[in-house]
Amino acid sequence: MSTAPEQPDPRATLRGGLPDRYLTADDIAVIFKVPKETVYQWRRKRMGPPGFRIGKYIRYDPADVLAHVAERKSTDQNAA
User: Is 53 helix (H, G, I), strand (E, B) or coil?
Assistant: First the structure.
């Protein structure tokens, strides 16, 4: 019996080791090793990873966080 090779879960590649759940401001602070207030300042200034509101809570999609990091790395490399 022939079975098709199992396709990898695209979320595993997309998330690159980040949890397979939406991240909190606390998670973002831990990942980037910054105070949580810095995460909130980034959001107010629209300069950090994009988040979205669920009721009164802010959540971050790990794929968006990875895309933000890639964009920042690219910008920094082009500026150097």
Answer: strand
Q: Mean pLDDT, to the nearest integer, of 72-80?
A: 82
pLDDT grade, residue 17 (50/70/90)?
low
22/11 Cα distance (integer angstroms): 12
Q: Which residues contact 78 (CB under 8 A, 6 or more apart)?
A: none
Neighbouring residues of 15: CB distance < 8 A, sequence distance ≥ 6: 62, 63, 66
Task: Kindly list the distances between the CA atom of residue 50 and the CA atoms of 2, 7, 19, 23, 61, in Å, as whole numbers in the listed order.
Answer: 44, 29, 17, 11, 8
Burial environment of residue 63 by CB neighbours within 10 A (0 to 12, 13 to 18, 19 or more): middle
Q: Take residue 3 and report the two structure tokens written for it.
A: 């079975």
